[in-house]
Design brief:
single chain; 299 residues; Rossmann fold; DNA polymerase, domain 1; 2 domains; seven-stranded mixed sheet
């Protein structure tokens, strides 16, 4: 029995396009043959490394951690979350409109993010409160992610977390859950939206390079210690949960084998067909990291 046959037989929630089975089998064999020394990982954060839902409740994204807390107020004493939800109702349908091209959607995504960032900067949120919000949030890693990242760090296999969320929250959360993970290190790096604070912990600005769900292919990592560590690692396991996540390796050069694993949360037959066309392996409605761990452990 081949690796793919075993994978599909033991995991009924895992899907591979029939036309891609040979390619996926060959890619995994290449990853195994080349070994860990040739490999690096590129992963989205929200709903890829973190759980989408638990006990029927949708868990928060990095931005939602701020939106869900009633203590975050604007100058008129209204809650930041109320205004953020209004923007969500306005822009989320655009982000998911199958009739619009990516090029048509991008200006709307940029406007949405800039409006959200302006609201956050005008709020009473500060560095201390942000840490409290993260520590008391319901955000959880998928079962097996801690072991996955710990094994990468142990074997010095580089991992890039590429997120359209908030990098500050990712750092705080990972510092709590996986203390060994270090941002801007040769073996671990985060590309995301980040907040600038003054000496008193007051929010003063957001990073100039905006990362939204549809422009992850535009951000390069050439000026980071991480980039030097992947120059001789042409093989990639890419992990995401959105169609736009497959572009996360577009700014990288000299790649050889890329295995794209997609998490399809709240799956439907039509969504599955879309994901089967852009990802190599699709994992439906599963809150674990069993499949990525299974693949990592054979490399």
């Amino acid at each position: 029995m081949s690796f793919i046959e075993k994978l599909l037989k033991e995991n009924k929630h895992v899907h591979i396009h029939e036309d891609k089975r040979d390619f996926v089998e060959q890619t995994i064999h290449s990853l195994i043959r080349d070994g860990r020394k040739m490999l690096h990982i590129v992963a989205d954060f929200d709903f890829t490394l973190t759980m989408y839902e638990k006990d029927g409740e949708t868990l928060p994204t990095t931005y939602a951690i701020i939106e869900n807390d009633q203590r975050v107020k604007l100058p008129d004493d209204s809650t930041y979350g109320d205004h953020a939800n209004q923007l969500l109702l306005q822009y989320y349908p655009i982000a998911n409109d199958s009739e619009m091209s990516i090029e048509e959607k991008i200006p709307h995504m940029v406007k949405w993010y800039h409006q959200v960032h302006s609201l956050i900067l005008s709020s009473n949120l500060n560095q201390t409160m942000l840490q409290e919000l993260v520590h008391h949030s319901k955000m959880e890693l998928r079962k097996g992610v801690r072991e996955f990242i710990t094994e990468l760090l142990r074997s010095q296999t580089p991992i890039l977390i590429f997120s359209a969320g908030l990098g500050d929250i990712i750092e705080i959360f990972l510092r709590k859950e996986i203390p060994e993970f270090k941002h801007n290190h040769e073996s671990s790096h985060i590309v995301s939206n980040s907040i600038e604070f003054d000496a008193n912990g007051k929010l003063i600005a957001f990073s100039k390079n905006l990362v939204h769900p549809l422009n992850k292919n535009e951000h390069e990592i050439h000026d980071t210690p991480y980039y030097q560590s992947i120059l001789n690692r042409p093989n990639v396991i890419l992990l995401g949960d959105a169609v736009g996540d497959v572009g996360m390796t577009a700014g990288m050069k000299n790649l050889k084998h890329i295995l794209k694993i997609g998490y399809l949360n709240h799956s439907t037959p039509s969504k599955l067909e879309v994901y089967k066309n852009v990802y190599d392996i699709i994992i439906c409605d599963d809150q674990t990291f069993d499949v990525p761990n299974m693949i990592l452990n054979v490399t």
